[in-house]
Write a structure and sequence with these properties.
The structure holds three protein chains of three kinds.
Chain A: E1 20-29, E2 32-42, E3 47-51, H1 58-65, E4 73-78, E5 81-82, H2 88-93, E6 96-99, H3 111-117, H4 122-132, H5 148-161, E7 166-170, H6 178-189, E8 197-201, H7 205-211, E9 214-219, E10 222-228, H8 233-242, E11 270-277, E12 281-288, E13 293-297, H9 304-311, E14 319-324, E15 327-329, H10 334-339, E16 342-345, H11 359-364, H12 379-393, H13 408-417, E17 426-430, H14 438-453, E18 457-461, H15 465-471, E19 474-479, E20 482-488, H16 494-501, H17 506-510
Parallel strand pairs in A: 3-8, 3-9, 6-7, 7-8, 13-18, 13-19, 16-17, 17-18
Antiparallel strand pairs in A: 1-2, 1-4, 4-5, 9-10, 11-12, 11-14, 14-15, 19-20
Helix pairs in contact in A: 4-5
Chain B: H1 7-22, H2 25-42, H3 49-74, H4 82-126, H5 131-152, H6 162-169, E1 171-172, E2 176-177, H7 180-196, H8 198-208, H9 210-215, H10 220-246, H11 258-267, H12 279-298, H13 303-325
Antiparallel strand pairs in B: 1-2
Helix pairs in contact in B: 2-12, 3-7, 3-8, 3-10, 3-11, 3-12, 4-5, 4-10, 6-10, 7-8, 8-10, 11-12, 12-13
Chain C: H1 2-26, H2 28-49, H3 55-77, H4 85-102, H5 107-132, H6 136-154, H7 164-170, H8 181-199, H9 201-211, H10 213-218, H11 223-249, H12 259-269, H13 282-300, H14 305-332
Helix pairs in contact in C: 1-14, 2-13, 3-8, 3-9, 3-11, 3-12, 3-13, 4-5, 4-6, 4-11, 5-6, 5-11, 7-11, 8-9, 9-11, 12-13, 13-14
Classes of the chains: A alpha/beta, B mainly alpha, C mainly alpha.
Chain lengths: ~525, ~325, ~325
């Protein structure tokens, strides 16, 4: 870890001092506001963290700054000069380069060709690769054949090679091996005190604390605070990320309302033993009991995607076993999982919804999947079933001809509704409330509780940590592909979960000691 | 992206757009009507019952082939082997008719068609070969195989039986072509099948969002295998009828219908990316294309101009659809 | 905490390297070398079968379709497809035949003009794809009719003429039997255009937009402009196909030959991925010659000429199925 940064002076900044200044930035996607009022001011020679929960608008702001997305409103000043860019190429020429989570490397070109495509000087690139700890990269290697970590380092070195005025790093260190991470942080730290600056986005609080000078915190598309990094600043950042309680908290569900589950001698609905897959998922085990809602908490890319893919039959694990109701199960296709009574409600509604089809076709989809159901559809029975589901979930059907024209909340209800009538025993919810309004959110969590009360097992991943305590009986925290913590709902308050998910040990935080 | 458009104009345009999006057949009917009206203006008195019957007689085989394209395009695929399969079926039928009679010959001739469809389906559905490549390759194989078969069969000769000629080339009471006897049930089956059959809905589902279909438990590969078999059998039926329309059968009889069959489905509003469209539009599309050909013939437009206009119309209609159905 | 993550990453590196091996075997050089080996084997076989068979006959017969395959390959590498390529060949064929018959003394400017027309046609295709936002396949399907109609407009029936030097340019050999002029012309033209282009930023951009459009955009590539250039290149090579047809047959024929089908067959055989971004031009050219040799061999063996079409199709199906199977395996690995 690099040395602690020097304290920066707080106070009113002179406008001309800023290297980059963005204010009042707004960006809407249809009805969804990704950015409402975002601002950012970067001094020369500063390493500036951009923090926020999932969906707070960090990625959109980065895209706006680098010209990948045109904002609806707001001004961007670079060295005091107003600046509008319409493409990453233009942003590059003005001295702003971004390194995204997904490296912008063409897989079918060699490394050298990727450099030529972006007109990157090879010698400078080589020098930066040396700094970053991969000195002998074969430039004639096809990008497709290189590991992701190497591609990200290449992307970073390529950006550094043209010495941009502002370098934006979006989750640069996620899924990087430890030695490379250390090198990256070192190189980033070397910008301090020069005339160039770095905007650093990371979920890893320790990195931010160790590396950055200041942090701008976004919440729900707004800039809610700028924090000088000093001992204890983590708590302030977490508090800003959380914000004040959105509404009167309902508090945890009273114990009496929860179905007593552990007492029965029944085998668990779904049991995972030592699941491993790919680079992200190392070793995850858990039991999901009937009538229980088990929360899953993880930051992006900690292996939860692979976990849900395995459980829903989309991916076969490299190691580990699954048991359904006490019997070993192997899924080769989602249809196998569905037959075993396990269904996935994906968080990305675009992977669950038939956007161009009607609400009733969407709800009826699982009912026609098997070849014996390929014949004539019983219209009356279908209408009844769809009407019942719409009624139960209170789906607003004003725009039912095409599911993509529904609001996000109603879309999510549709993807849930299709499973209600079919005797499903285990539900896998992957972040079901991402980007939907508070009322629908409540309704969905109420439904989750109802499903559990009726005897189903529910695995619920949520990026909205405050909801875990409300909806779940227990929660497991996954970090680095492993379960790092398991706690009952009563203990699963938001700060605790957030710390655990950032890889901070509970005990250490409780003692107030952050390295 | 049209930042300079005034909000009011944009809204009215949007309303029109969404109205059209909900009723995609209306502009097609208007276009068809306009073309017929134009024909009557160009040559007064041409629009008679026999004109209607003639148009339909030629539109029926095209409309059946358009059903193949519609269904495969709904899943995001395409079937470029329909024309050679149709030709093959008509030719095989014409060589067998002396031995087993018209019905036996027709049914036997549909068997190789189904086999071609099965191979297409296995390639596309199970091996995930691009439908374009798979069906083009099968076209090569089939057209070659038909030629080989023709060489072996030189002595046997071909004959289109009177029953097939009656079906394809003659009219009921001089008003409606007999081929409607086959086409109407077939079209009804496709129309109802796409709307009210589980399988038809799956075609839309697969083309709209294959991931979602998979997550809902649909074995997409199997759906596609069945689809390409259906497509090939339909193409075979179209070939049999067209042999009746023309009164002869050769190994390349239906080949010129390949691209018009795609065009009919595109004009009819079926998206080549899948998930959107329907067969009713394709039927009207087939009628529109047939009327355009008639119109250009009546205008004594040279073949050259006909083709240019044909292409321009396909592009214009496709572009208009893209504008109408695009998310604003 | 990062210790375990680090170990995990290195495990990944090995996995990716293993995947890379499969990918390398499937791709590029190995594939082309294999094709060349097949071609040489076929050639030896042909020579044993028919000692008098000259490579020049193959090269002349294959020249138009080889140019078509080159043009098609460029568009497909950029992530598109050009169904109109056969019509463009027919159109440039009749334009050149008509002009050369009427003004044989202006043959050099006419050839240049026809090449320019080819580029123009390709530009129109590309601009329509970009501006209409209609899928490539539909746009070029429509333009297939338009350009075929235009060809008929220029010349209603086969006719026109050619000039001697054009024919001499591609007839016979350069002394050695293994160096037929038609092949040299093909390699020189493709080499002059493609080798500098491929190394340039523009050429890389063509691969980039076919491989990963988002990454290309983020790398600063203008996607629309690159796409238009790819179509213009296809038009250019299609006009070369048309010219070589004029040169070899001496007339213009307004009906498109089977160039679309053959060009797609050749690029698939030549290892160009229809998904875009992968492949080169050598593979499709060798693919065309292999298909031509197979046809010739089957002729010498007195196999039905029709049967050779079946064999070509079976080869294509086998190749794409094996390719698709390997891709599937790679994805699930």
């Amino acid at each position: 870890m690099p040395a602690p940064p020097p304290r920066t002076e707080t106070g009113v900044d002179d406008v001309t001092d800023q290297l980059l200044e963005a204010s009042g930035v707004e960006k809407h996607y249809g009805a969804v506001a990704a950015l409402r009022d975002a601002s950012l001011a970067i001094r020369p020679g500063e390493i500036h963290a951009l923090m926020g929960a999932n969906g707070a608008g960090k990625s959109t702001l980065v895209k706006v700054l680098t010209g990948a997305v045109t904002p609806d409103a707001g001004t961007i000043l670079l060295r005091g000069q107003s600046r509008t860019v319409h493409s990453p190429a233009e942003a590059r020429r003005t001295g702003m380069v971004s390194v995204y989570q997904e490296p912008a490397i063409i897989p079918d070109l060699k490394v050298a060709q990727n450099l030529a495509l972006t007109e990157t000087p090879v010698d400078a690139f080589r020098a930066r690769m040396d700094d970053l700890g991969i000195p002998n990269l074969d430039l004639s290697a096809m990008a497709r054949d290189l590991p992701l970590a190497t591609l990200r380092i290449i992307d970073l070195a390529r950006a550094l090679a043209i010495e941009p005025a502002v370098l934006l790093l979006d989750e640069m260190t996620a899924a990087l091996p430890a030695d490379l991470t250390a090198r990256v942080l070192e190189v980033v730290a070397s910008h301090r005190g020069t005339d160039r600056s770095v905007i650093f986005i990371s979920h890893r609080m320790l990195e931010v604390a160790g590396l950055c000078d200041r942090a701008t915190v976004l919440r729900e598309g707004r800039t809610v605070g700028v924090v000088d990094i000093a001992p204890g600043a983590e708590e302030e950042i977490v508090a800003l990320m959380l914000g004040p309680a959105v509404s009167a908290p309902r508090g945890p569900i009273p114990e009496g309302a929860r179905v007593a589950t552990a007492a029965t001698g029944e085998p668990p609905r779904l049991a995972a033993r030592g699941l491993r897959a790919g680079r992200n998922l190392s070793d995850v085990s858990f039991d999901l009991r009937a009538g229980e809602v088990l929360g899953v908490v993880a930051l992006e890319g900690q292996g939860q995607d692979e976990l849900f893919e395995i459980l829903s039959g989309q991916l076969r694990p490299e190691a580990g076993e699954l048991e359904v109701d006490g019997r070993a199960a192997t899924f080769r296709h989602p249809a196998d999982a569905i037959r075993a009574g396990i269904v996935l409600v994906p968080g990305d509604r675009s992977s669950a919804l038939l956007g161009q089809r009607s609400v009733s076709e969407n709800i009826g989809l699982p009912g026609i999947a098997a070849p014996r159901r390929w014949g004539l559809i019983n219209g009356r029975a279908e209408r009844r079933r769809v009407a019942a589901a719409i009624d139960r979930l209170q789906i607003d059907t004003r725009a039912q001809a095409e599911a993509r024209r529904l609001s996000g909340g109603n879309q999510q209800k549709v993807t849930i509704a299709r499973w209600l009538a079919s005797g499903v025993r285990t539900f896998l919810f992957y972040d079901p409330t991402r980007g939907i309004d508070i009322r629908t959110k409540r309704e969905i969590y109420d439904l989750v509780r109802e499903l559990a009360a009726a005897g189903a097992g529910v695995l619920l991943l949520s990026s909205e940590l405050e909801e875990i305590q409300r909806a779940c009986d227990r929660a497991v925290v996954i970090f680095g592909g492993r379960v790092v913590d398991e706690l009952p709902a009563a203990a699963a308050d938001e700060p605790t979960l957030l710390r655990a998910a950032h890889g901070l040990e509970r005990a250490a935080v409780a003692a107030g000691g952050v390295a | 992206m049209t930042a300079d458009a005034t909000p009011i104009r944009r809204r009215s345009l949007g309303t029109l757009r969404s109205w059209m999006r909900d009723r995609p057949l209306v502009p097609l009917f208007i276009l068809l009507g306009a073309l017929v009206a134009l024909l009557e203006v160009v040559q007064p008195g041409i629009v008679t019952p026999s004109f209607v019957s003639n148009t339909m007689r030629f539109a029926v085989p095209l409309a059946i082939l358009a059903a193949c394209q519609t269904m495969t395009m709904l899943t995001g695929g395409i079937d470029l082997s329909v024309a050679v399969v149709a030709s093959m079926t008509s030719y095989v039928m014409a060589t067998l008719v002396g031995d087993v009679g018209w019905l036996g010959a027709s049914l036997l001739a549909l068997i190789p068609a189904a086999v071609v469809g099965l191979v297409n389906g296995i390639g596309v559905g199970w091996f995930r070969v691009h439908p374009l490549i798979m069906t083009i390759s099968m076209s090569l194989i089939v057209s070659g195989a038909v030629n080989v078969y023709a060489r072996m069969n030189i002595a046997g000769g071909t004959r289109v039986p009177p029953e097939i000629s009656w079906l394809g080339g003659q009219d009921l009471l001089g008003l409606l072509p007999n081929s409607l006897l086959v086409f109407i049930p077939l079209a009804a089956l496709v129309l109802v099948g796409l709307r009210r059959f589980g399988y038809g809905r799956l075609l839309y589902a697969v083309g709209d969002n294959e991931v979602a279909a998979r997550l809902a438990g649909v074995r997409v590969g199997n759906v596609l295998v069945v689809l390409y078999v259906i497509s090939a059998v339909l193409a075979g039926i179209a070939g049999l009828i067209y042999a009746g329309v023309i009164g002869s059968a050769t190994g390349r009889l239906v080949d010129p219908f390949l691209l018009p069959s795609v065009a009919a489905a595109v004009i009819g509003g079926t998206s080549i990316f899948g998930g959107r469209g329907g067969y009713a539009g394709s039927i009207i599309g087939a009628l529109i294309l047939t009327v355009i050909v008639t119109l250009l013939t009546v205008l004594a437009a040279p073949e050259a101009v006909r083709q240019i206009l044909f292409g321009a119309i396909i592009l214009a209609v496709a572009a208009a659809y893209t504008r109408i159905t695009e998310e604003s | 905490m990062t210790e375990s993550a680090g170990a995990e990453e290195r495990g990944l590196g090995r996995g990716a390297a293993a995947r890379g091996l499969v990918g390398r075997a499937m791709r590029g050089d190995a594939w082309t070398v294999g094709l060349v080996a097949i071609f040489v084997a076929l050639l030896v076989f042909t020579k044993l079968l028919q000692p008098g068979y000259g490579l020049d006959a193959l090269a002349i017969a294959s020249l138009p379709v080889a140019f078509a395959a080159v043009g098609q390959a460029i568009v497909v590498i950029s992530g598109g497809i050009d169904l109109s390529i056969g019509s463009v060949i027919a159109l440039t064929n009749v334009i050149s035949a008509l002009l050369l018959m009427n003004a044989p003394e202006l043959s050099v400017p006419i050839v240049l003009l026809v090449l320019l027309i080819g580029v123009g046609i390709g530009l129109v295709n590309g601009v329509l794809v970009v501006v209409s936002r209609v899928p490539d396949i539909v746009v070029t399907l429509a333009m297939l009719f338009v350009w075929a109609g235009a060809a008929l407009l220029v010349l209603g029936t086969p006719g026109g003429g050619s000039v001697g030097w054009l024919r001499e340019l591609i007839t016979g050999t350069l002394g050695v039997e293994l160096m037929p002029r038609a092949l040299i012309v093909l390699l020189v033209v493709v080499g002059l255009v493609w080798i500098p282009l491929r190394r340039s930023r523009l050429g890389l951009s063509i691969y980039a937009i076919g491989s990963d459009q988002l990454a290309a955009f983020r790398s600063g590539v203008s996607v629309a402009r690159t796409k238009i250039v790819a179509y213009a290149m296809a038009g250019f090579f299609a006009s070369l196909g048309g010219l070589s047809l004029t040169a070899s047959t001496g007339v213009g024929t307004p009906i498109p030959g089977p160039y679309l089908l053959l060009s797609v067959a050749a690029i698939v055989l030549g290892g160009v991925s229809l998904a875009g971004g992968r492949g080169g031009l050598l593979g499709p050219i060798v693919g065309i010659y292999i298909l031509g040799l197979i046809r010739a061999d089957l002729g010498f063996l007195r196999v039905e000429p029709a049967f050779s079409t079946v064999i070509q199709g079976v080869i294509m199906v086998a190749v794409v199925m094996v390719g698709a199977y390997l891709t599937l395996r790679r994805r699930s690995a």
